[in-house]
Design brief:
The chain contains 8 helices and no strands. By secondary structure, the protein is mainly alpha-helical. The protein has one domain. The protein is globular, with a radius of gyration of 25 Å.
């Protein structure tokens, strides 16, 4: 005897696996997002930090011989822009080599936490220069850069937040010493600290 199958029952049978498949895909997306959120951003460039430090050490004597506060500031702004370019290129290169995406997960949080203090430092530089308080610029730069590195370092490898704390300590001290000392403390921070921690990161975390 032939059994007549109702079309509605056939449609229900065919469509039943779809919600299960969607649920499985949602679960996979959730697991992947959770792993990304829980992971550390390991693509901080050690050798890039070394290059940034060497650049700062080379620029410090040039800035010290500047004929005016404006010329001194111009030297360090040029160094900062080149260093940011080096750091960004080195970070992207190391992330690509490690198969890590900077645009999401820990990489995205690293960049988002680093950026606001740098923007604040840029704005305060304009204010301090216009008000004639150039002597406060080294401490401000060191302190805010350190804040950015500490907050970004919460999503990165262990030496990074310690490097940020070192910058913060130098910045706090530089705000209360004569300008000549503050300038050399800035060279020690952006130069020596970058080189020292860059070598440590390069050795322990793959370049």
């Amino acid at each position: 005897m032939n059994v007549v199958r109702h079309p509605a029952a056939k449609r229900a049978r065919l469509s039943a696996p779809v919600p299960m498949r969607d649920h499985a895909l949602d679960s996979l997306r959730f697991i992947r997002q959770t792993m990304e959120n829980a992971s550390s951003f390991t693509a901080v460039p050690g050798w890039g930090g070394v290059a940034m430090g060497v650049l700062a050490l080379a620029a410090a004597p040039i800035a010290a011989r500047a004929s005016s506060p404006a010329a001194w500031l111009a030297v360090w702004i040029a160094v900062a822009l080149v260093a940011l370019g080096i750091g960004g290129w080195a970070l992207a290169r190391k992330a690509r080599r490690a198969g890590v995406r900077v645009s999401n997960g820990a990489g995205r949080r690293f960049v988002l936490n680093l950026s606001p203090p740098l923007v604040a430092a840029a704005l305060l530089t304009v204010v301090l220069f216009r008000s004639g308080a150039v002597s406060l610029i080294p401490g401000t730069w060191l302190l805010l850069y350190g804040v950015g590195v500490v907050t970004a370092g919460a999503f990165s490898v262990r030496p990074v937040p310690f490097m940020g704390l070192t910058f913060m300590a130098l910045g706090a001290a530089a705000l209360f010493v004569p300008q000549t000392w503050a300038e050399w403390m800035m060279a020690a921070g952006f130069g020596g600290v970058h080189v020292a921690f860059g070598l440590l990161i390069a050795r322990k975390y793959g370049g």
